[in-house]
Design brief:
- By secondary structure, the protein is α/β, with parallel strands linked by helices.
- Helix content is about 60%, strand content about 5%.
- It is elongated.
């Protein structure tokens, strides 16, 4: 078939582009749902059997028919099948489906629509838009958009279930689409501690961990952003949200804030918009169907009832009863949807009668005198009483879940002992069909969740059932298994795919650990989850929070040695990335190593040895670190695992680089790179930085030292770009600090260095280790812009920058600094010794030009030149040759100076546009 579109109702479907539009605007749809829609539309009114649909949409996967029903129901909601109006999908009982709406084949969409779709896909976000259309809120949405533009801070206030979240999402979607601003949507319902709100916002925005002062760090990072922040379900965290809102708005003038809550926040500058239920008939004297349809509450009921029951039609026989139902439910959308989902069980009249009975105790006195949550509770009571007993039990059991979940998790937790898995699936699917579980089909994997109000209600039922402790245990055991599987998959599954599948489990991992560490929990389960979930905390850059849970776990008595060793290892890594507290790192890694050797756990020995090696490296004790690296290599060889041997080569390559043996470092890093594949990580996989990023960064440093400045710049850029693609801020910090900034400075590309520093400040600024690197780089760039002496100090700092000297160099007061205050050069054997000798010689010449000073400088420069040649470091050799040639040129040794400089310059085959080579070439010309 050629390029074309299929038009039906307000929709336009492009099979070629795999895109759906409504009134010219793109509609977000998952790939399975889109395949299903294309199949139905292309076949039109002809019957498409269930078997044919399953074969087309899931060609290589066995699925049950219930999955097909879920997707069809979602499509109906998306398209807006209407009772008494236009319908799109018709069910042929027991056989399949037909697409019954008129379909017109038209020419492909004009280019402007395609461009609009692309623009939205580029500027969109993970906004959880509803699959069904919004009814009765158009004026409210327009008003809220206007108020937000005028007031900056708007709170939508109303009872639970009134649709605050739905309206907020629609307002956010329109403002983001119209203004192309950044969006931060955070649902607070799952948070019980207001101190976690800034961290949740940072996670949504892809910002790094916020450190010890999360609110100040957050406001500092977004103060220049144009952004709409939506904080949903604030009512249980008012004391935390109110000051946070004020701080955000005062610090960031281009930020707008939209919050939803059951009561006002009481914050400065807050503009309130009260959201009540949908309009419904105030009396029972509506006499016609058209009058009934004029009320949004009735329209909503009719649409949702038709979506759950194919044969439902709003007509003259039932519109009065529907009006009565909507009135009894106060027009609350959630309550109406729950009621409409039960029409197929008891019919409209039976529904109206049962709802009246359920409300019997709540109708005495004025309705407005009753707490609004009690109205919703009555609705939920009534809804709960209508579903079968096995579904009631399943819903109560699922209340233990905090965040989104998969069908696998739902089945595991709703299952009873000895019950058939098929029945478990049917119970969950029944709850999905009845809208007690919401469905998200936008990704590759279908995910489900309980609305916060539904979950709160179901939790009460769980407590009443007497199964609460049992379900918490089942929850913890399930997520222990999931954490174990995630850790295993981490070694082989590509990072983006892994985080898409496991990232959503973090809320339930937290809850499972916290319960298992409580007095009623099982500590051994907490230890297992804490250990096995390590890659998740590391990948989400939540090391501060992970450190706290590790410390809680280690404070427990009676931990077996194997688990204690693993917990110590994890804590050492968390401290390394979150605190950079070297003594505390050493304590934990050393204790872990002692235990691992005592119980002969080779895997734990390797991870502990890596940690102790990192401790010595961070102190600049590279000879001791080399001994540990070789010890790691010996254990790895005995262990026999290829990935362990690869990591041994990786740490050895780092050691050899800093010890000055660049040839050996290059050989080792090339061996590591030859063994890398995109989806395989090192054996120390829980906490290692991205291997491709780390090795490319190291190789870029080696390239520059060995006289390949162009290759060094290219590799440094590759390392940073690869780190950005991983979305892992710790790997990004490493790439920038080890390669991006240093190589740019060494080659004289200040613009590139500034660009890298901006990236560091944007993504990694709150990390204690990398923020210190950032301060040091800022100092060097400021010094470069000042006097010649300051420029020399900058070069000295660049050559000395390492973890061991970082804190001293980053805290230098450059406004009152002289060379004598700089740390003394380190051991001769290290990589930077020739450069430090050269700079020391330049400092000597800066003090005076006496014969003695010239002689001292010459001796230092000759020693630097000799060391550069012996270590085969053309870049340091050239710098020293330039300094020595200038000195000799001032002492009537011009010819000797020129010859020496030409020799050093002639070793280069590239990099002639970099600062060092330009300076050398210019001096050669001056020497004649």
């Amino acid at each position: 078939m050629g390029n074309h579109s299929l038009s039906f109702g307000p929709f336009r479907l492009s099979p070629e582009r795999r895109a759906l539009y409504r009134d010219g605007k793109p509609v977000r749809l998952g790939s399975r749902a889109l395949d299903l829609l294309i199949a139905l539309v292309e076949n039109g009114e002809n019957l498409t059997s269930k078997e044919a649909l399953i074969k087309r949409v899931w060609p290589d996967t066995f699925i049950e028919e219930a999955n097909l029903r879920v997707h069809v129901a979602a499509l109906r909601k998306l398209l807006g099948d209407q009772s008494g109006g236009l319908q799109y999908i018709s069910t042929v009982s027991g056989r399949g489906y037909c697409f019954v709406a008129p379909v017109v084949r038209v020419e492909d969409m004009p280019a402007d629509l395609v461009l609009e779709a692309e623009a939205i896909s580029c500027t969109g976000s993970d906004l959880p838009r509803s699959l069904s259309r919004i009814i009765g809120r158009e004026q409210c949405v327009e008003n809220l958009c206007d108020q937000l533009l005028r007031h900056r801070f708007v709170t939508i206030v109303g009872p639970g279930g009134v649709g605050k979240t739905t309206v907020a999402i629609e307002v956010a979607a329109r403002l983001v689409d119209d203004r192309r601003c950044q969006l931060c949507f955070v649902e607070l319902a799952h948070l019980t501690d207001g101190r976690l709100i800034p961290g949740a916002m940072a996670s949504v925005l892809g910002l790094p961990p916020l450190g010890d002062q999360p609110l100040a760090s957050l406001t500092g990072q977004i103060r220049k952003e144009s952004m709409l922040i939506v904080l949903d379900n604030c009512e249980h965290l008012l004391d935390s949200v109110a000051p946070l809102a004020e701080a955000l708005l005062k610090a960031a003038p281009d930020v707008r804030l939209l919050t939803t809550s059951r009561q006002p926040l009481g914050a400065e500058g807050e503009f309130l918009v009260h959201l009540s239920g949908l309009d419904f008939p105030s009396t029972e004297d509506i006499t016609t169907l058209s009058e009934a349809l004029a009320f949004p509450a009735i329209e909503l009921f009719a649409e949702r009832a038709a979506a759950s029951f194919d044969n439902f039609r709003l007509d003259e026989s039932n519109f009065s009863a529907v009006g009565q139902i909507c009135r009894r439910l106060d027009g609350i959308p959630l309550a109406i949807e729950l009621a409409a989902a039960r029409v197929n069980l008891v019919g409209v009249d039976g529904l109206a009668a049962q709802l009246h009975d359920s409300f019997a105790l709540l109708t005495r006195g004025r309705r407005t005198a009753l707490p609004r949550h009690q109205t919703l509770r009555a609705t939920l009571d009534w809804s709960f009483n209508l579903i079968p007993a096995e579904e009631k039990l399943a819903l109560a059991r699922l209340a233990v879940l905090i965040g989104p979940f998969t069908m696998e998790t739902a089945i595991a937790l709703s299952a009873g002992d000895g019950e058939l898995a098929k029945n478990d699936a049917e119970r969950v699917l029944g709850l999905i069909e009845k809208s007690l579980i919401t469905t998200d089909l936008t990704g590759k994997i279908a995910r489900y969740r309980l609305l916060s109000t539904t979950r709160e209600y179901a939790l009460e039922k769980l407590r009443q059932s007497g199964e609460q402790d049992l379900l918490h245990l089942k929850h913890a055991l399930h997520f222990a298994r999931l954490a174990r599987r995630a850790r295993s998959d981490w070694e082989t599954v590509p990072a983006a795919e892994w985080i898409h599948y496991y990232g959503h489990t973090i809320d339930d991992m937290r809850a499972a650990i916290d319960w298992a560490l409580s007095s009623s929990g099982q500590q051994s389960v907490a230890f297992d989850i804490t250990i096995d979930s390590a890659p998740l905390w590391f990948r989400l850059s939540l090391m501060d929070e992970y450190r706290e849970r590790l410390q809680r776990a280690l404070a427990c008595p009676d931990i077996d040695l194997a688990r204690k060793s693993r917990l110590r290892i994890a804590l050492g890594h968390a401290i390394w990335y979150a605190q950079n507290d070297v003594p505390l790192m050493e304590e934990n890694f050393t204790k872990a190593l002692e235990i691992a050797e005592h119980i002969d756990d080779r895997s734990a020995q390797l991870q502990s040895l890596w940690g102790v090696w990192a401790v010595h490296r961070s102190r600049g004790e590279y000879r001791k670190a080399l001994a540990l690296a070789k010890r790691y290599e010996a254990v790895a060889n005995a262990f026999g695992d290829p990935k362990s041997k690869s990591l041994a080569n990786r740490i050895l390559s780092v050691n050899q680089h800093y010890l000055g043996d660049q040839e050996e470092a290059r050989r080792l890093v090339k061996m590591v790179q030859a063994q890398l594949t995109p989806s395989v990580r090192s054996v120390n996989n829980d906490f290692q930085l991205d291997a491709h990023v780390a090795t490319t960064a190291l190789l870029s440093r080696i390239d520059w030292l060995q006289g390949f400045p162009d290759q060094a710049k290219a590799r440094a850029r590759q390392s940073v770009e690869a780190a950005l693609k991983t979305s892992h801020v710790l790997s990004l910090g490493y790439a920038i600090c080890m390669a991006g900034c240093p190589v740019a400075l060494w080659t004289g590309d200040i613009a590139e260095a500034e660009c890298n520093l901006r990236l560091l400040n944007k993504y990694v600024a709150s990390n204690r280790l990398y923020s210190t690197w950032g301060r040091a780089f800022e100092i060097t760039m400021r010094l470069r812009e000042r006097t010649d002496t300051d420029s020399l100090i900058a070069q000295y700092i660049e050559a000395r920058l390492d973890v061991c000297s970082l804190s001293v160099l980053a805290d230098l007061n450059i406004d009152d600094l002289n060379p004598s205050e700089l740390p003394e050069p380190i051991a001769e054997e290290l990589w930077n010794y020739p450069e430090l000798l050269r700079i020391k010689a330049e400092f000597v010449l800066c003090k005076g030009s006496s014969v003695a000073a010239q002689k001292e400088a010459e001796e230092l420069l000759l020693k630097s030149l000799d060391r550069s040649k012996s270590q085969r470091l053309p870049s340091f050799e050239l710098r020293t040759a330039v300094s020595l040639a200038r000195l000799w040129g001032c002492t009537a040794r011009v010819a000797e100076a020129r010859s020496m400089l030409e020799t050093s310059y002639g070793k280069f085959t590239e990099g002639f546009a970099t600062t060092d080579l330009i300076n050398a070439d210019r001096l050669i010309a001056e020497l004649g």
